[in-house]
What does this fold into?
Amino acid sequence: ATLFMTLLSIFNILLSKLSNQQDVVIGTGIAGRSHADLEDIFGMFVNTLAIRNYPKCDLSFKDFLREVKGKTLKSLEYQDYPYEELVSHLDLPRDSSRNPLFDVALTFYNKFEQEELSFPDLKIMPWGNVRNVSKFDLELTITESEGLHLDFEYSTDLFNKETIDRFVVYFERIVS
It folds into this structure.
């Protein structure tokens, strides 16, 4: 299994324990560049996958990870199917304040070497990305860079900082 699949498994277990549910759907972004023709084209081709798993208490972590791997690979077979078409096909009720398929997301950024841009007489600096609105009830963003950096973004209408801090402790316990 990949690191993404392992982290997705852990996040599923966390959400299952927090919600007392054994049916968990997590959304994740996919690069959307599965065709060689798109590799050299500028622009966003991101699509969204909703991955449904069933973290049952009687499964070992290894068995659950095996299930998550299978479901993730199966989901990736359909990564080119537009998310909006899926939602329309399922005829789900629309609400501008909710995502129709999932309320929780996992974003994983692989470690990659980024070339430094340089232009004569031009200085380029990173710009901090600060959002005041959460896209989901809860989103875990994991960045692989000299280890793993985890960041929980959440709706402050639903959670307070102390609650999210407890979620982090629970996540660490599951990892242990």
Summary: The longest helix spans residues 3-19. The radius of gyration is 18 Å. The chain has a mean pLDDT of 86. The chain has four helices and five strands.
